[in-house]
Amino acid sequence: VTMQRLLNVSPSTEIKFELLAGTTLERILRLHNKTDLPVAFKVKTTAPKRYCVRPNCSVIKGGDSIEVKIVMQPLKEIPENPNDWKDKFLIQAGQLSEDQDVDLVGDPKSLFDSLPKTKLCDQKLMCTFDVHSEGAGGLHRGDMGASPKVERDHDHKTLDPVPRSTPGEGVGGTSRKGGGDSSSHERELEEKLNLERRRAEKLAQEVEASRERERGLKQAHADETDKNKDLVRSLETLQARFENLQAKSQATAKEGARGEASHAVAAQGSAMNFTTFLCAVIVVFLSIIVYRLFALPQGLVLPPQPPQ
């Protein structure tokens, strides 16, 4: 997406200032949204100390326009060659999505920062200066003419965001009502400064809270690491005990097997001894019986047989 499809920038190439010492110079930059969706934009410059832009960041609804005031601080004296400054402005813009409700978001900067850099388009404007003719005075405001040709060979300066104005910088407001508008403008700048300070304090608190959460996470990680080490040591101890018990169990089983074998051998020997003794007793008993049946002592006379 190009800038020509998103915004109509007027003037489109050049911002012209007619210099006058001791006078605040103001120019109007008109931006028109050519699409139906809201567009967020931001204005940057190579000389943020010389210019004040209001607003420097905002959102333009579909089909709407906005006027951006570019205020140049008063000069103590006019330089001989002011065009040697090579001041430039850069307009960056990007289209927001349909689901982003612009009315509910109070910070355009957040909307602009949420845009991917690949979806941003930009347009550069050169600053040209003329010395004010004698007899003219007052605050200059209005549209700037466009130069047919823009120098593009001096882009060595870094484009910085235009800072929000602060009281005491010498930048005056519009000169519609003279000094009264200057006081109201100073109050407006002071309110903006207080708002920026509150945002800075809130950001500092968020950073400190993030650091505190990081310290808590590191401590929790260290505690969890210690617990894991204790658990590993406990597992190693249990494993050693299990291996010791397993070794003892195997030794006991071997000793029991040897004891049972010894008992079996002893029982077998006792049985054999008893069998031998029993056989001996039987042999003696049979010998006695045989002897008594067949072997009579000498001199023994059998009794006579009775007659038939």
CATH level-two architecture of one domain: Sandwich
Could you tell me the strand content as a percent range?
Answer: 15-25%
Question: Helix share of residues?
Answer: 40-55%
The level 1 CATH classification of one domain is: Mainly Beta
Tell me the CATH topology of one domain: Immunoglobulin-like
Protein name: MSP domain-containing protein
GO biological process, one term: endoplasmic reticulum membrane organization
InterPro entries: Ig-like_fold, MSP_dom, PapD-like_sf, VAP
Membrane topology: Single-pass type IV membrane protein
Question: What keywords describe this structure?
Answer:
single chain, four-stranded antiparallel sheet, six-stranded mixed sheet, rod-shaped, 308 residues, Immunoglobulin-like, Ig-like_fold, alpha+beta
Structure description:
The chain is α+β, with helices and mostly antiparallel strands and 308 residues long. The chain has a domain at 3-172: Immunoglobulin-like (Sandwich). It is built from 3 helices and 10 strands, in the order αββββββββαββα. The chain has helices spanning 3-6, 108-113, 179-294, and strands spanning 7-10, 14-19, 25-33, 39-45, 51-54, 57-60, 65-72, 88-95, 121-131, 160-161. Strands 2, 4, 6, 8, 9 and 10 form a 6-stranded mixed beta sheet that branches. It has a 4-stranded antiparallel beta sheet with strand order 1-3-7-5. The longest helix has 116 residues, at 179-294.
